[in-house]
Amino acid sequence: MKQLLSFVRKEFLQVLRDPKTLLMLFGLPVIQIVLFGFALTNELKNANIVVVDNAKDYASEQIINKIEGSKFFSVKKTLMTPSQINDAFKEGTIKLAVVFPANFYTDLLHLGTAPIQVIADASDPNTAVSLSGYISTIVADYQTNLSKDMAVPYSIRPEVRMLYNPDLKGAPNFVPGVMAMVLLLVCVMMTSVSIVREKELGTMEILLVSPVKPLMVIVAKAIPYLLLSLVNLAAILLLSVYALDLPIKGSLLLLVGESTLLIITALSLGLLISTITSSQQSAMFASMMGMMLPTMLLSGYMFPIENMPIVLQVLSNIVPAKWYYIIVKSVMLKGLGFAFIWKETLILVGMTIFFLIIALRNFKIRLE
Asked: How far is it, in rounded angstroms, from Cα 60 to Cα 51?
C-alpha cells in the first residue's frame, strides 16, 4: 500500500509539474465549452440584408419597419436597381434581399393580393432557407394584422429566389469547408511533426551542420507536403465536379493559385509550431487543437459568424480558414474573379509573411 501511494504521489507531482498536461486536462475542456456554447447555435441573428422599396407606400414601410425591428435581420442599405443587388451579393456583404414592387399597397387593396420578391444567397442553403422562412413569417404576421381591420382578406405572396444554389444542395456549402480543413490540417500537422521528429531523433543537428543552409533544410521538408496537398486539392476538386455535380464556375487557375497560397500559409504556421515545441506529441496537439476547432467553429463553415458574440467575431479574423472559405465560395460557386477576393488574398499573404518571420526568428541553428 505504501508503494502504491508513493507511485500515486509521483504521478500527481509529474502532472502538476507539466504545463502541457495541465493545459490538456483543464484548459482544453474550458475552451471547448466556451466555443461550442457560444458558436454552436442554429438560430440566425443580425443577418445583413438589403431592401429595394419600389413602392414607398404605407404597407411597404410597415413591413420594412417590422423587418428592421426583428433580431434576425440587420438592414444595411436600401438599393434601387437589380444590378446593385447583384453586386452586393457578389461582394458577399449581404445574405438576402427583399424587393417590393411598385404600387404594392394599391394592388393589395384593389386586387386583394400583392407579391414580395425574396432573393437569398443559397451558397449556404441552410442559412438561405432559414432567412427566407423568417421573412415569410414576418410578412404573414403583418398580413394577419391587416386582415383584422379589413372586411376582405388580403394575400401577400413572398416569391423566393435562391442564388448560386437554386436546388439547395449541401455540397456547395461543405466542399469549401472541407477543402480548408484538409489543406490546413495536413500541412500544419505534418510540417510541425516532421521537424520536431528530427529534434527527437537527434538528426536535426546533423542536418544543420551539413553544407546545406538551414533555410534550405526547412524548404526541402516543406516541398513534399506542398505537393501532397496539391494532390489532395486535385482529388477534392475532381470529386466535387464528377461525384457531387458541383461545377467550378470561376477560374480553375485562380482557385488553384489561392489554394496554393493557403497551403504555403499552413506550411509557415507548421514551421512556427515546430520552433516553439520540443516533442511530436506537443506539436501534434498544437496543430490539431489549434487548427481543427477554429476551422470548424470560427471559419463560417459550420455556423454563421454573424451569430457569435463580438469577441468571437473578432477572433475569427485570425483564422486563415475563414478567408480561404470566402475565397473558395466566391470563385467556385459564384464565378467571381480576383477583383472580388483581393482583400482576402492580401490577408492570407500577410499571415504567411508574419508566420515566416516569427518562425525564422525562433528557429535555432544550434540545438541545446
From this structure: 10
Cβ-based neighbours of 193, under 8 Å, separated by 6 or more: 274, 280, 283, 284, 287
Q: Where are the alpha helices (DSSP H) in 125-170?
A: 125-148
Output the CA torsion 346→348→349→354 (10° steps).
Answer: 120
Establish how many alpha carbons lie within 13 A of residue 242's alpha carbon, considering only the half-sphere containing its beta carbon. 6
Whole-angstrom distance, CA of residue 1 vs CA of residue 266 = 51
14-56 tens-digit pLDDT: 556 667 655 654 565 456 445 544 554 555 777 888 888 888 8
Q: How many residues does the chain have?
A: 368
The C-alpha atoms of residue 97 and residue 49 are separated, in whole angstroms, by 6
CB neighbour list of residue 311: distance below 8 Å, 6 or more residues apart: none
Residue type, 212: V
Strand pairing category for 96-100 and 113-121 = antiparallel
Residue 159 falls in which region: left (phi positive, over 0), alpha (psi -120 to 50) or beta: beta
Q: How many whole angstroms separate alpha carbon 86 and alpha carbon 81?
A: 9
* Average per-residue pLDDT for the chain: 77
Task: Let me know: does 189 contact 284? Beta carbons within 8 Å.
Answer: yes
Handedness of CA 162, 115, 77, 66 (dihedral sign): negative
Q: Which three cell numbers stand for residue 288?
A: 490539431
Residue 156 φ/ψ, nearest 5 degrees: -110, 120
Ordered structural domains, the chain, with CATH: 47-163 (3.40.1710.10), 170-362 (no CATH)
